[in-house]
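During the reporting period the student researcher (J.K.) took over the structure-prediction task from the postdoctoral fellow and processed the backlog of single-chain submissions. One of the processed entries is reproduced below for the supervisory committee.
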Amino acid sequence: MGLKAVFLDFSGVIFDDTAINQALIADILLKENLRADDDEYIQYCRGRSDRAGLKDILANRGRILSDSYLDRLLASKNKAYREKIDSLEQLTLSPHLTEFFNQLKEQNIAVGLVTGTPKSEVEYILQKVELNQYIDVIVAGDDIEQSKPEPTPYLLAVEKLNLHPSECLAIEDNPVGIEAAKRAKIQVVGIANIYPLHMLQRKANWTVDDFLEIELDRVDRVLSEAS
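J.K. obtained the following structure tokens:
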């Protein structure tokens, strides 16, 4: 088999917390006496780790922070994130996600999360929606200094599973993540959860609207032929 592992982004792919994260970053900026800007958030934060995004937004505003000060801002954001999640009556996952995970497990394909979201937030959501049993490896935003679009997070996930990039598939919902996967030499599916399909088609190897549109047998053949 050519396909041995599937790596997914978390925010926007597993669980759409985009609006929550944007609002929390806006709150941090407000406390720093700065006004949030939607375009700035998209440019610096979407698809990237909280640390990288917040650091670059503040640098763009002329604020260079010490690591310890940035740590305190991120800790407050993590606390507020959990409180927001706890206030929701229901956590809505991407459609057909569980069915897709079952398909992967039936075919003995490992499942990993490669995300800029902090590990504590990822694990908290996974526990609440009972998805822990599907996940074999997590590379989160606080596991590694470099953030997407650098390939390092994907390369670390591949290393953790003792695989080669040519044996893996990534699923991303944004251009930053797609670039990271491709720079790691991993074939990537763009799923149109946030960005329109036509935008992702110009960047990803495959594009879909839904997890069940991913043809695992076809991916396996392509990877096998390429290896």
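The committee noted the following: Residues 5-16+91-226 form a domain with the Rossmann fold fold (CATH 3.40.50.1000).
J.K. will present the remaining backlog at the next meeting.
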